[in-house]
Write a structure and sequence with these properties.
- There is one protein chain.
- By secondary structure, the chain is an all-alpha fold.
- 77% of the residues lie in helices and 0% in strands.
- The chain is built from six helices and no strands.
- Helix 2 packs antiparallel against helix 3.
- The longest helix is centred in the N-terminal third of the chain and has 47 residues.
Length: 155
Amino acid sequence: MGTTLALLALLLLAGGVVWAWHALRKFGARKDAQAERAASLIAEVNKNRKAVPAPAPAARAPAAPPDWEALGRSLLAKGAFLEAAWTLHAAAALAGDAMSAQKRLVEIAARAAAAGRPQAALLLYGTLLEKYPESEYAGFVRSSMKAEEKKLGKV
């Protein structure tokens, strides 16, 4: 009986090995078939794909938003001369209107001077001369700067 049990155990072990070998073969075949299906699908998609047209160029947003004008005027009303000058000058400059940009610097500098803020006026006048040395406002700006420097006692 011991021999029979040993033979039976050997047969069970051999059957288990055969079953595992068969299962692994089937698993490998399934994996290969899956990879083949994926490659076939990708090839089909690539074959049917049409050339994607380049996106149309985006419409350019306005260079100087209309809100900048309102913001600049609001800052000017609050006495924030430097901030107002930057906002209004940038709005005009980005819109491509250099003459208006210069005029805004001069206007705001004059308002700062009238409001008793000669330092701000001098800074804005200096900015105009630095950015636009050949400006038609240059003579007026230089004489205004001398007047503001007198107020500060620099001359």
